[in-house]
Amino acid sequence: MVSGRDATGNRRAGSRSDHGAPSSDTGRSAEPGAKAAEDQPSAEVLPPQSGDGALAELQSENAALKDRLLRALAEAENVRRRSERDLADMRQYAVAKFAADLLPVADNLERAIASVPAEARRDDGIVKALLEGVELTEKELMRVLERHGVKKLLPIGERFDPNFHEALFEIPDPSVPDGSVSRIVEPGYSMGTRPLRPAKVGVARGGPSGKPPSGR
Fold first, then answer.
1. Which H, E and C letters describe 116-159, residue by residue?
2. Residue 179 belongs to a domain with what CATH number?
3. For residues 197 and 185, what is the distance between their CA atoms, to the nearest angstrom?
4. Tens digits of per-residue pLDDT, 97-154?
5. 204 and 165 belong to one structural domain
6. DSSP 3-state assignment of 25?
7. DSSP code at position 173
8. Exposed site from 9, 44, 89, 173, fewest CB < 10 Å?
9. Would strands 199-205 and 150-153 be described as parallel, antiparallel, or unpaired?
């Protein structure tokens, strides 16, 4: 009886040990899951960007874009002004060559009028009528030239300007400022701010050193 109880007890003890001890299969099944978790790459955690740094970068980029825009607008305005100036010059000086070709005609009309003696001017005959016709033609020609920007230069008493005057000789004259134009051999013409033909003049020397007035 005792041995039977012992046998029974042993069997019970063995049964408890079978049920109470952790199963080796359970331990083995948990290991692959843990290893898989270790093998997975961990997500890279970036530090948050500073709000002040991002704002400064945006402000810098905005300033650069604004500067480029202002430069582009300024360049476009310069191009527009240059185009307008070139167009105005082209319109103003388009007839320069034609006007220069007409100047000898004006010179000949002026010489024809100057060649008529004073006695013939007082006569009521055909010479006076012809002279009046020539004078009217000269005046009309000068009006046409002035309408296109051509101006006659008669620089008596003005300061000599090599851009608009051509000095043919010097005249000793202490009564007028030194370097002023005292005689005109041939009148000059200008178109806008450019000389169309310089006036041929004589320049006074020996006078006071005061600056004579300029005609432009």
1. CCHHHHHCCCHHHHHHHHHHHHHHHHHHHHHHCCEEEECCCCCE
2. 2.30.22.10
3. 13
4. 899 999 999 999 999 999 988 888 887 788 888 999 999 999 999 999 999 889 999 9
5. yes
6. helix
7. -
8. 44
9. unpaired
pLDDT tens figures, 27-61? 444 455 444 445 555 545 545 555 678 888 898 99
d(CA 72, CA 66): 10
CA 44 from chain center: how many Å?
54
Structure tokens at 189: 């013409």
Whether the pTM exceeds 0.85: the reply is no
Residues 125 and 144 in one domain: yes
Q: What are the C-alpha distances in Å from 79 to residues 46, 69, 90, 211?
A: 50, 15, 16, 40
Domain boundary among 148, 178, 200: 148
Give the whole-angstrom CA distance, residue 103 versus residue 83. 31
Q: Are the C-beta atoms of 158 and 185 separated by less than 8 Å?
A: no
